[in-house]
Design goal:
2-enoyl-CoA Hydratase, Chain A, domain 1
């Protein structure tokens, strides 16, 4: 299928796919047999897809993670779960449309599902604040998680946001406190939690619903403490250096799997989740079904112990002695001077007079 919203690195492929579509329409209209030509063009397109998507750079993955045609949280909820009942509001202020959630069913068992929601066009993005949650969104999420804990229902969260809303309203109403409270409560929530990073996973905005027993990540998603543009603006005072920043931030799924930040990578269809959304959603459904079934059998105390150890064990350090990097021979430490023999006595008044 031709991708009309092609990214810069997909330019040649998009053009070829467009020509294939035009040729198909032309031959259908004229009742002509051009199967041989079509087959050659389709083989060429397939080879080009494999060549492009088998060696994506981190910056290209960032672009794919932000593709407006990717399936978003509500797409997954509608296709994976049954009888979803959305719950609104934080019982204190407003209902944040950037963070949705409610009670639903998966394979005949109750589940609470929560996720950050982006739009596919400008109108939808305005309605959901471009997927940037306000404090009320995180408080709504916590209300739903506490509901799940009370009735021993597994929690599934979908992460797809560049971060929490950075405006004055968020600061006035305590967005940092709301995220910090969620981190604390999720770390000890007495029910299974499964997190799926489906697009962008940015900063504390993602972490506010990102603590779980299993963290899954789509292969063309990203998960990062700061956007590449934000990092570039800080380090080099130039947001155009974002591709360079994406290289050093280690924000792609393989890097994060190696560091222990995520537990599993869900492979996307060739070209990205937006090319075959139904297939992508089905793959997520399969992984969720398996993990929910497995985690539901784990005793709560053991589940919490494993969750604690999981987050204690994230990342690793390699210590290198200074002598290894400088090439100098190590110097033995100096022993402190013996005060009885080496430390001079303080001056006396007689010394001053002399």
């Amino acid at each position: 299928m031709a991708n009309e919203s092609g990214l810069e690195f997909e330019k040649d492929l998009v053009e070829l796919e467009k020509r294939i579509e035009e040729l198909k329409q032309f031959t259908d209209h004229r009742e002509m047999n051009m199967g041989g030509e079509l087959k050659q063009m389709e083989e060429r397109a397939q080879n080009l897809r494999e060549n492009i998507y088998s060696r994506l750079t981190p910056w290209q993955i960032v672009q794919l993670s932000r593709h407006p045609k990717r399936p978003h949280t509500l797409d997954y909820i509608r296709e994976i779960f049954d009888n979803f009942k959305e719950m609104h509001g934080d019982r204190a202020f407003i209902d944040d449309r950037a963070l949705v959630g409610g009670a639903t069913w998966l394979n005949g068992k109750p589940v609470v599902v929560i996720g950050t929601q982006k739009g596919k066009d400008t109108k939808e993005n305005i309605a959901c604040n471009f997927g940037l949650p306000l404090p009320e969104g995180y408080r709504k999420a916590l209300r739903l998680m506490k509901f799940a804990e009370k009735f021993q229902i597994p929690v599934v969260t979908f992460v797809d946001t560049s971060g929490a809303y950075p405006g004055l309203e968020g600061e006035e109403r305590g967005v940092a406190e709301a995220i910090a409270r969620n981190l604390r409560e999720m770390s000890s929530l007495r029910t299974p939690i499964i997190v799926v990073v489906i697009g962008e996973g940015g900063s504390g905005g993602a972490l506010g619903i990102g603590v779980g027993d299993q963290v899954l990540m789509l292969s063309n998603a990203m998960y990062t403490v700061i956007t590449p543009e934000g990092c570039a603006a800080i380090l080099w005072k130039d947001r155009a250096e974002a591709p360079r920043a994406s290289e050093i931030l280690k924000i792609t799924a393989p890097h994060l799997k190696k560091l222990g930040v995520i537990d599993e990578i869900i492979e996307e269809p060739l070209g990205g989740a937006h090319r075959e959304p139904a297939l992508m959603i089905e793959r997520v459904r399969e992984r969720l079904s398996e993990h929910i079934q497995r985690l539901s059998k784990v005793p709560i105390k053991k589940l919490l112990d494993q969750r604690y150890q999981k987050y204690r064990g994230i990342g690793f350090l390699t210590e290198i002695a200074a002598t290894e990097t400088s090439g100098q021979s190590p110097t033995a430490p100096q022993a402190p001077a013996d005060e009885s023999t080496d430390t001079p006595a303080p001056p006396t008044s007689a010394d001053a007079e002399n």
